[in-house]
Design a protein that fits this description.
13 strands; about 375 residues; five-stranded parallel β-sheet
Length: about 375
């Protein structure tokens, strides 16, 4: 005897009650690869997870999606946790997801590359957005765990290098759920209320990729990009790279290196000043000796030039003296010549200049007055 037929709605309601009464299906974790990822404008996320032989649809409500620590993408291997639910109207079932974690180091690396590529395309890593670190900062801010070794190392190195810098520590979570949001909100708060700070160090000590993941999250990266105070990223060890390293104004290999980068070494500055002073003194001494030699050479040349000039003038004077002596009228008159002068004292050079009157005749041993009555 055939069973009495039921409606489609009744069948789906029955299946839904069966699913809802199964304890295993109410809290289940399923691993698989994300496919067909769709981000709805409402904030809800729709996707499927697959393995080699099957797939299942998943739904992630916007309230849970906001808490995601990773950028979802097709191809990521994930573990979803939630409950299996029947969509009565459509007649299919799916996992209503409460949380998603990426499984495996390989998938964490893939998530890192996806985030890196996304932010790079938006220009968050561009050199033109990088701010220069101040050469002589007066106030330094440190964002890290107040109980970790990193903050102690940074303070120790800063104090060894520079006693003039004021240090301000801003405790933040550096790993686990909510760490990235905590760092981002602290960065925004510092930029709002402590604009007097010259530079910020953001970092922590080493750890696993999971431990360092807060520094790879988008909310933290955008807060660093928004910061008007220069930020040094110092996360993990030398070989560890995070998204914060790429978006920050400077990347330090370790927190210790960040401290050395942030503040100048007063001892080195004083040594440099002493070296400059010594070099300046040596330079001035050399310059003074050089100028002395130049002055001595110049004086010698001037003296030699003046002596030559004087010798030339004396030689000329001697020649002129000879000429004057040879043309001295007295010497001529000693040979028997005399000079006739008129009343005006001018020599009479021609007989045509003679007139009746008195003249002086000058001899070598005196003169006599004569009168000419007839020419």
């Amino acid at each position: 005897m055939a069973l009495r037929p039921i409606t489609v709605t009744q069948l789906n309601d029955y299946i839904a009650r069966v699913f809802e009464s199964d304890v295993l299906l109410m809290d289940i974790a399923v691993t698989g690869e994300i496919t067909n990822l769709k981000l709805h404008s409402s904030g809800h996320v729709y996707f499927s997870i697959t393995d080699e032989n099957s797939k299942i649809n998943c739904f992630l409500a916007s309230s849970y999606a906001k808490a995601l620590r990773y950028e979802l993408a097709d191809g990521l291997q994930v573990v979803v946790t939630g409950r299996v639910n029947v969509y009565r109207k459509g007649g299919y079932y799916s996992i209503y997801v409460r949380s998603i974690t990426i499984s495996g180091e390989g998938d964490l690396a893939a998530a890192f590359e996806l985030m890196k590529e996304k932010l790079a395309k938006e220009g968050l890593f561009s050199p033109e957005h990088k701010k220069e670190l101040p050469q002589f900062p007066r106030k330094l801010g440190i964002l890290t765990s107040d109980t970790g070794a990193a903050v102690r190392d940074i303070i120790k190195i800063v104090r060894q290098r520079n006693e003039l810098v004021d240090i301000y520590v801003f405790p933040v979570k550096v790993q686990g759920e909510g760490a990235a949001e905590n760092i981002a909100s602290m960065l925004d708060l510092i930029n709002e209320r402590r604009r007097d700070l010259d530079v910020l160090i953001l970092g922590r000590g080493g750890g696993s990729r999971e431990d360092l993941w807060a520094f790879n999250e988008e909310v933290m990266a955008r807060a660093i990009f928004r910061s008007e105070i220069p930020v040094i990223s110092a996360v993990g060890h030398e070989t560890d790279f995070s998204i914060s390293d790429f978006v920050a104004d400077k990347r330090a290999e370790t927190p210790t290196a960040a401290a050395e980068m942030a503040v100048p070494d007063i001892g080195e500055i004083l040594k440099h000043i002493a070296d400059l002073k010594e070099g300046l003194n040596k330079g001035l001494s050399s310059k003074l000796r050089y100028d002395e030699l130049r002055a001595e050479t110049g004086l010698r040349a001037l003296r030699d030039s003046m002596l030559k000039y004087m010798e030339d003038r004396m030689s000329l004077i001697d020649r002129m003296k000879i000429v004057l002596e040879e043309n001295d009228p007295h010497r001529i008159m000693e040979k028997g010549y005399s000079v006739i002068q008129n009343d005006e004292g001018k020599a009479v050079a021609s007989k045509d200049d003679l007139r009746d009157g008195e003249y002086d005749i000058i001899f070598k041993d005196g003169k006599t007055r004569v009168r000419i009555s007839h020419v």
